[in-house]
Amino acid sequence: MATAAEVAQLSERPEAPRQTTEFRTSRPQIVGPECPESPFPILLAGPVQKGFGRGGKELGCPTANLPDESITPISSVAKTGVYYGYAQVLPPKDGKTELCEADVRVLPMVMSLGWNPFYKNEILTAEIHIMHEFRSDFYGYNMNALVLGYIRPELDYTSRDALIEDIEVDKRVALNSLNRPEYQKFRADPHFDLSCTIPPQS
Ligand SMILES: Cc1cc2nc3c(=O)[nH]c(=O)nc-3n(C[C@H](O)[C@H](O)[C@H](O)COP(=O)(O)O)c2cc1C
Whose CA is nearest to atom 29 of ligand 1? Predict the structure, then answer.
């Protein structure tokens, strides 16, 4: 298995597999062992950046991207693909924010690591979709994430609807997979700030 970082060194990206009917109709609803195994958990942290603005929101999956240096802990040990885990957005140090208490909790997430074959990105990205309705955007805020398992390879699609459908399945698979005792424990991992609160806004 080549890691994402190794693939990034190649002069040409290997062609991503196409989504097939067989893949679509035979997806498992839960993935990974009962307890996270090496290389998981993988810890990520960094300031949230804007994506390519191609409409993650319209795809039903607005994503928070991490800068290049923040994705090395995963790209150096893992292949490209879709992963699940937990993430937490931290309020800015000056305390001024439109986010509320519920927005800064440790929340379930799905992450796409790679070159988004459907969009043929030029650069490697780690795009995290947190499964929660946020009160506002949080670009520039720090985010901590813990990656706990692998769901599937990144695929190429013949239509945007087929990609949206797979992302919806990814979200369900992630929630099912995280809903096991050995995964739930990571919600309280010291990588997160469990005492995080939002001060009253003036
Ligand atoms: C859970 C998840 C799975 C994804 N799977 C794929 C995939 O298999 N192939 C692909 O090309 N892009 C995939 N994407 C990337 C989306 O295409 C991308 O996040 C979307 O285009 C938003 O891009 P933007 O940040 O430019 O708005 C996935 C994204 C998420 C969150």
Answer: 112
